[in-house]
Amino acid sequence: MYTLYAIPNCDTVKKARAWLAKNDVDYQFYDYKKQGVDRLTLVRWLTQMPWTQLVNQNGQTWRKLPEAERPTDADGAITLMLEKPSVIRRPLIEQNGRVVALGFSGEQYTEAFL
C-alpha cells in the first residue's frame, strides 16, 4: 500500500490523485497539514533525498519566509517543516518507508507505478 503525503487543496496533488485513480493505484491519503508530520518521518525522507528537494522553495509558504528564517541545512529544514508542513514539496508518495515519487509528473508516475 502506498501512502500519499500532501494537502488536499493543492492543484498538483489533485492532478496526482486523478492520475492514481485513473490507473487504479491504491493509496492512503495523509494530510500532513492537518495530521502533522513527525521528526522521524522527515529524517527518513532526508536519508533518501537532500533537504533542498524536499522543501518546496517555489511555494508561497517559502516565499513569505523572511530570508533570516530560511534554512541553510537539513537540521534547519526539519525545524521549518515541523513548524510549517505546507513548505514540504507535494505530493510525496511512500511505500514501506521508501519514497517512490515526489511532486507530480505523468512520466515519473508511469515509471513508478505501472
Architecture overview:
- The chain contains seven helices and four strands.
- It has a four-stranded mixed β-sheet.
- The chain is α+β, with helices and mostly antiparallel strands.
- The protein starts with a strand and ends with a helix.
- It has helices spanning 11-22, 32-35, 39-46, 51-54, 60-64, 74-83, 106-113; strands at residues 2-6, 27-31, 92-95, 98-102.
- Helix 3 packs across helix 6 (74-83).
- Helix content is 45%, strand content 17%.
- The mean pLDDT is 96.
- Helix 1 (11-22) links the parallel strand 1 and strand 2.
- The radius of gyration is 14 Å and the shape is globular.
Structural topology:
Blueprint: E1 2-6, H1 11-22, E2 27-31, H2 32-35, H3 39-46, H4 51-54, H5 60-64, H6 74-83, E3 92-95, E4 98-102, H7 106-113
Parallel strand pairs: 1-2
Antiparallel strand pairs: 1-3, 3-4
Helix pairs in contact: 3-6
